[in-house]
Design brief:
The complex is a heterodimer of chains A (492) and B (416).
Chain A (H helix, E strand, L loop, with lengths): L1 E9 L3 H11 L5 E5 L15 E2 L10 H20 L3 E2 L3 E5 L5 H13 L6 E4 H7 L7 E5 L3 E3 L1 H14 L3 E4 L3 E6 L4 E5 L2 E10 L5 H6 L9 E10 L1 H4 L5 E4 L11 E4 L5 E4 L3 E2 L10 H14 L8 E11 L12 E5 L2 E8 L5 H21 L23 H10 L6 E3 L4 E2 H8 L8 H8 L11 H11 L30
Parallel strand pairs in A: 1-2, 1-12, 2-9, 5-14, 12-20
Antiparallel strand pairs in A: 3-8, 4-8, 5-7, 6-7, 10-11, 11-12, 13-16, 13-17, 13-18, 15-16, 19-20, 21-22
Helix pairs in contact in A: 1-5, 1-9, 2-9, 11-12
Chain B lengths: L4 E9 L3 H12 L4 E4 L15 E3 L8 E2 H14 L3 E3 L3 E5 L4 E6 L2 E12 L3 E3 L2 H4 L9 E3 H11 L6 E5 L3 H12 L3 E6 L9 H8 L6 E2 L2 E7 L6 E6 L12 E4 L2 E4 L3 E3 L2 H5 L24 E3 L10 H19 L11 E5 L3 E5 L2 E2 L5 E8 L3 E10 L2 E11 L5 E6 L9 E5 L1
Parallel strand pairs in B: 1-2, 1-8, 2-5, 8-19, 10-17, 11-12, 11-17, 12-13, 20-27
Antiparallel strand pairs in B: 3-4, 6-7, 7-8, 9-18, 14-15, 15-16, 20-22, 21-23, 23-26, 24-25, 24-27
Helix pairs in contact in B: 1-2, 1-8, 4-5, 5-6
The chains are: A alpha+beta (492), B alpha/beta (416).
């Protein structure tokens, strides 16, 4: 690979994908480098999927500003891209009167940030808002919401791709040289020359920044583990349940969050780790998640856990200091055409579109003189409608129009063959089982692919895939070990 | 646009051994029967069970899974059952309305009787919460069986099997035949979960080690499975510190239990039993919803397909009788059947008063030798059977004749 572009984005998580989309609406050529074989494979698919209201960001910080701007822009982008989201609201619950001041502090911060509708409610009223929870008092946050974080990341990246952004997946940055007029970025698959470099490498952003600035701040990975509950549980959840934070600059701790697909998440745990790639789940963390979640919701059905995952937050605060640092747009005077986004932890998902707009308008456009494209020059790639979510009469019509809509491949998540084919033929050219999973939800349900993996394999074999073509996340994670019989018939 | 409506006497959901037998028996009893199955081929999981051992009880022959299924498909066809494949039942309501989706069509239909025969699914890694990474190479045993037998795909070279359920045992032998190195079977309990004949024929004959009272405590390997940490577990099912050891492998198969697939039943309002995870039924196999019947692995997990099919026949006959107006009305106060000492569960959960024959299926809690299983009516022994070897892996049935008809307050099955 060898390319020359105006702007290069390093890292295709939710922030990088949002930046790619914002840049794709401007003149100028854009490339995105991603070391994984799909976008959003780090923290972007391993988080709570929450649209934050803005109550837990200290006023007058970049976190507060981009949370507030982002939550509005995020909803606009979700509507444009057809990405599922819901403003379902949140209850921050106090188990005793002693925790009331922490609710009042959140309310004050929220009001200073311009969050509307905040109300402290009694335990009785809280239990009517979300049956099943037991608490003394709660802060009701009606403007909190949920979004499918992987749908958002993929949809933004695919939309950017159809608008001309070139994605180089499986390309890890190994070095950056700065010349008079450009950066020369070497990767494991080739070289890209770019006039402007944006580093949105998440947990790796500190390491990438250090390639240009040896004094760049350190980014500390902090692992968070989640448990996923069956959609059966989601039927009885109308809003998120958060515990009152214990300290003034602390995160919320373990919360119970419905997802846009109807599952329920418990998490996250919190453990600083040395490895930015860490994704291991532990028995201890899972037990602790369950214990804390049961304090919020005593009747939590433990037997309906269907999965777990873990991802790393990218923190600028060290394990010793803890708490939150502000979002950082790191630059050095000698390199005005490089900006490093560091410490984009929560509410990074909420803030992503606003961060992207800010980076493009404040840093890139003035430096390169690129202009917004005329609206008619911008295409839109919408996230597909899910058959399962269609109204009844539209389902019948959809099946009659396309027989593949009547072919339910994944029965847990109600995924049709049409949706599966749409996922397989994606504009980023992602050919992994994980990519199919996040684009279609097939294999994501309660049977973890017991029913649909055979159907996916059958479909792909009909399309000429050999066993060695099946990869979980990339070439290093082959799903299978070849054919059983050497002399067997190969459909290709 | 409302889907077209069809009505028939009996709609059977699921075309595995129980559903096929139910459909055939219902049609033979004079009902108009439609069987719906989501797969292209009828037979359910039997189609991937290319090993033999099926049919010993039903036909007195040794058959493979597909051969066994073919017997019932033929019989259902001869009896005039309308067999509809590639049809997934998306919705089922309490008043027997179904919405079925297939490639190119979506139709509503109604059955005067409904037979639930959707079978079961395998427990997954997520449900077990096995700590560690999430690499490629972790499959349930049944999925591995499909990949091996139906898709000619090698799942891995060096395979560890967690759980000693029958599918895992069958796969240990199958993968050994295909040249894979099956490095062991790890079982949390102090005894195997699968049938004794499978322990002997699938593990012992091939020298595959069985680690009892052991389980996996960690999965290693970021991209593909590299090793699994195994530890000894105590009687409280907690790992014993210091007993951990790593087993190098590239594949982990899970054979850790089956779960009746009752999502559709739940939506129709069918009451479920916590012990079986299947429907709560009376002795006609009727669930808590009038005219909705249940049989096979969706009712409770069977050890042999023969028993699932036999159960299907009985449920199919009841469904036909109900549909064509020959069934007796539901009793307001039937006799409850309790699982007593040493018994994990009993099916059916109630028996009609006045019945002259009681047939119960059950599983014992733990292995034992020279035990006696009894059915007691108000404390008096109605029938008993000697179990030279009692094992949780084996389903047991007892039949009791009640001349003059059952007229007691309670029934209890117990082991002594």
């Amino acid at each position: 690979m060898s390319d020359t572009v105006d702007v290069l984005v390093i890292g295709a998580g939710v922030v990088g994908a949002a930046i790619a989309r914002a840049l794709s609406h401007c003149s100028g050529t854009v490339a995105v480098l991603e070391k994984e074989h799909d976008v959003g494979m780090g923290a972007s698919v391993r988080n709570s999927g929450v649209i934050h209201a803005g109550i837990n960001c200290l006023p007058d910080t970049a976190r507060a500003r981009f949370c507030m701007e982002g939550r509005s822009l995020l909803q606009t982008w979700c509507s444009e891209l057809n990405v599922p989201y819901s403003i379902c609201g949140k209850l921050v619950v106090a188990q005793s009167q002693e925790q009331l001041p922490s609710l009042e502090r959140l309310k004050a911060h929220g009001e200073a940030n311009g969050v509307p509708g905040l109300r402290i409610v009694s335990g009785v009223e809280a239990a009517t808002l979300q049956p099943g929870i037991v608490c003394n008092t709660a802060l009701h946050v009606p403007t909190s919401g949920i979004v499918s974080p992987y749908a958002l990341t993929i949809a933004m990246a695919e939309d950017a791709a159809v608008n001309g952004v070139r994605f180089y997946l499986g390309s890890e940055v190994t070095g950056i040289d700065s010349t008079d007029d450009a950066f020369v970025v070497t990767t494991t698959t080739g070289t890209v020359r770019a006039r402007f470099v944006i580093n949105s490498a998440g947990a790796h952003a500190g390491r990438v920044a250090a390639m240009l600035d040896p004094n760049a701040p350190t980014v500390y990975p902090c692992l968070g583990e989640y448990l996923i509950l069956d959609r059966q549980v989601g039927e009885s959840m109308s809003m998120m349940i958060y515990p009152a934070p214990r300290a003034s600059n602390a995160g919320f701790g373990v919360h119970i969050t419905p997802t846009t697909e109807g599952n329920v998440l418990l998490g996250p745990s919190r453990e600083y780790v040395s490895d930015p790639e860490a994704s291991e789940c532990s028995r201890e963390a899972a037990d602790e998640l369950l214990k804390q979640a049961c304090e919020l919701w005593p009747d939590l059905p433990r037997n309906l856990i269907i999965g777990a995952y873990a991802g790393v937050r990218s923190k600028l605060t060290s394990p010793d200091s803890g708490g939150f640092a502000d979002f950082l747009f790191h630059q050095t005077p000698d390199q005005p055409r490089a900006v490093h986004l560091l410490g984009i932890e929560s509410p990074g998902l909420t803030a992503a579109p606003a961060l992207a707009r800010h980076v493009v308008e404040t840093f890139v456009q003035p430096a390169l003189g690129i202009e917004p494209k005329p609206p008619e020059a911008v295409q839109l790639r919408r996230w597909p409608d899910r058959f399962e979510e269609l109204p009844e009469h539209e389902k019948t019509r959809a099946v009659e129009e396309d027989p593949d809509s009547g072919d339910i491949v994944c029965r847990c998540e109600g995924v049709t063959k049409r949706e599966l084919l749409h996922a397989i033929d994606n504009p980023l050219g992602v050919k992994t089982l994980s990519g199919i999973k996040f684009r279609s939800r097939a294999t994501m349900g309660r049977c973890s692919g017991g029913y649909c993996l055979p159907r996916i394999v059958e479909l792909l074999q009909e399309r000429g895939w050999a066993p060695d073509d099946f990869l979980l996340r990339g070439p290093a994670s082959p799903a299978f070990a070849g054919r059983l019989l050497k002399e067997s018939h190969d459909p290709a | 646009m409302t889907p077209h409506k069809r009505e028939t006497d009996v709609v059977v959901i699921g075309g595995g051994p129980a559903g096929l037998a139910a459909a055939a028996a219902a049609a033979e009893a004079g009902a108009e029967v439609m069987l719906l199955d989501r797969n292209r081929e009828l037979g359910g999981i039997l189609n991937q069970c290319i090993h033999d051992g099926f049919g010993l009880h039903a036909f007195g022959e040794v058959l493979t899974g597909p051969e066994f299924a073919a017997r019932y498909v033929d019989r259902a066809q001869e009896a005039g059952v309308r067999l509809q494949t590639e049809t997934l039942v998306a919705e089922l309501s309490e008043d027997h309305q179904l919405i079925c989706t297939s490639p190119g069509s979506r139709v509503a239909m109604r059955g005067r009787s409904i037979v639930l025969a959707m079978g079961c699914r395998e427990r997954t890694r997520g449900m077990l919460r096995i700590p560690g990474t999430r690499p490629a190479g972790v499959y349930t045993a049944g999925t591995a069986q499909w990949l091996t037998n139906m898709a000619n795909i090698r799942v891995g070279q060096r395979v560890l099997i967690l759980g000693s359920g029958d599918i895992g045992l069958i796969m240990a032998r199958r993968l050994t035949w295909e040249g894979a190195d099956v490095v062991g079977v790890v079982e949390l309990l102090p005894y195997a979960s699968g049938l004794p004949r499978n322990i002997s024929q699938c593990l012992e004959d091939y020298g595959i080690p069985l680690y009892l009272s052991h389980s996996a405590t960690h999965i290693h390997g970021r991209e593909r499975v590299e090793a699994v940490t195994v530890a000894e577990f105590d009687a409280q099912r907690q790992p014993i510190p210091g007993t951990e050891f790593d087993i190098a492998c590239d594949t982990l198969l899970l054979s850790v239990g089956l779960i009746p697939e009752n999502e559709l039943s739940r939506r129709a309002g069918v009451r479920l039993d916590d012990a079986t995870c299947g429907a709560w039924i009376d002795d006609r196999y009727m669930t808590s919803v009038d005219g909705v019947f249940s049989c096979g692995n969706v009712l409770h997990i069977h050890d042999l397909a023969d028993w699932a099919a036999e159960e299907g026949e009985r449920a199919g006959r009841s469904a036909a009788a109900h549909a064509i107006g020959l069934g007796s009305p539901r009793e307001s106060a039937p006799v409850p059947v309790d699982a007593g000492a040493g018994i994990r569960y009993v099916v059916p959960q109630t028996v009609a008063r006045g019945t002259e024959e009681v047939l119960v299926s059950f599983r014992v809690v733990e292995p034992g030798t020279d035990r006696t299983a009894q059915i007691l009516a108000d404390g008096r022994v109605l029938a008993e059977t000697k179990l030279r070897r009692a094992h949780p892996a084996e389903m047991v049935q007892i039949r009791a004749d009640v001349p003059g008809g059952l007229d007691t307050a309670t029934l209890e099955v117990r082991l002594s």
